Amino acid sequence: MASSASEKWAVVQYGHHGPATKVYRFQILLPNGTSTSLKLRDPGEEMPLSDFLHCIRKELGDASAYGGQRRGIEWDGDVYLEDLLDRKIDKKVQFSDFVTKGTNILRLQDGEEFVRTYENMWDLTPPTELLQELPAEYSTESALADLVDNSLQALWSNGSKEIKLIRITVDGEKIVVFDTGRGMDGSEDNSISKWGTMGSSNHRVFRKQGIGGKAPYLLPFFGMFGYGGTIASMHLGRTAVVSSKTKESRKVFTLHLSREALLEKSSSKLSWKTAGGVRDPSEEELALSPHRSFTQQF
């Protein structure tokens, strides 16, 4: 039996029994604030929604896997799926609408209360050897430089007519870094999870040359270490929320970090999974970035 916390994909064979020619990977965001993964091999061109829901329920297994901490899903109610373009799927799943090279995110709705945050949505597990690499020289200034470096890298790809803005706000005990760069979403190549994964920085290959550097941190050493947003954010505070949107996506993707939660999963035998969500952009965010892409870290 697999649950939403399973580190392995559920593999469901549907239809054909020959060698798989197409594999579709889905992440299903559930209305009780959890998420689960699903893999379908060679499902054909379409599948009745009832059969697709059966595959999800098979992956979830017994509802008792939630330990009574989460509400049940009203499977007999008005259950349907939504994609990230808010398109409703209530009769058939058309697989031509989905990709085979990455993960397709779908939200399951059951007519009950809508949730914005989902457990274990993003996997931030770093290579094991990186867990022991953080040098003693890593300071508050280094962490802030890493966050600003993320924003600088994002701005470099902006067009000549697009606003290039980095805004840093210190409000009480909160630091907010906002940029109008290309943004991130839930796609395989541009996933917001890469923001929080150690070793994913574009400047990581220069980190040894950057260690010990003095301000101003000129290209390519601004971030100095390149350990990713998770390490930088957790060096500055106990919690962090990252919100990001690309020009192509209609939704803002969020990633929620908690130092305590990550420490509980710091064993190399466990994955660093963290909560996330999907929401609409705010009026302020769209006003700051007329070209409709941005990232905010706080």
Any descriptors?
298 residues, alpha+beta, Ubiquitin-like (UB roll), Heat Shock Protein 90, seven-stranded antiparallel sheet, six-stranded mixed sheet, 6 helices, 15 strands, 18% helix, 27% strand, disordered N terminus
Describe the protein.
- With 298 residues, the protein is α+β, with helices and mostly antiparallel strands.
- It has 2 domains: 11-115, Roll (Ubiquitin-like (UB roll)); 123-297, 2-Layer Sandwich (Heat Shock Protein 90), CATH 3.30.565.
- The protein contains 6 helices and 15 strands.
- Strands 9-14-13-12-15-11-10 form a 7-stranded antiparallel β-sheet. A 6-stranded mixed β-sheet has the order 1-3-2-8-5-6, covered by helices on one side. A two-stranded antiparallel sheet has the order 4-7.
- Helix 2 crosses helix 4.
- The longest helix has 16 residues, at 140-155.
- The radius of gyration is 20 Å and the shape is globular.
- Mean pLDDT is 77; it is low at 1-13, 62-67 and 201-224.
Write the layout of secondary structure elements.
Elements: E1 11-13, E2 23-29, E3 35-41, E4 46-48, H1 49-60, E5 80-82, E6 88-89, E7 92-94, E8 103-109, E9 117-123, H2 140-155, E10 166-171, E11 174-179, H3 207-210, H4 228-236, E12 239-245, E13 252-258, H5 259-264, E14 273-279, H6 283-288, E15 294-297
Parallel strand pairs: 1-3, 2-8
Antiparallel strand pairs: 2-3, 4-7, 5-6, 5-8, 9-14, 10-11, 11-15, 12-13, 12-15, 13-14
Helix pairs in contact: 2-4
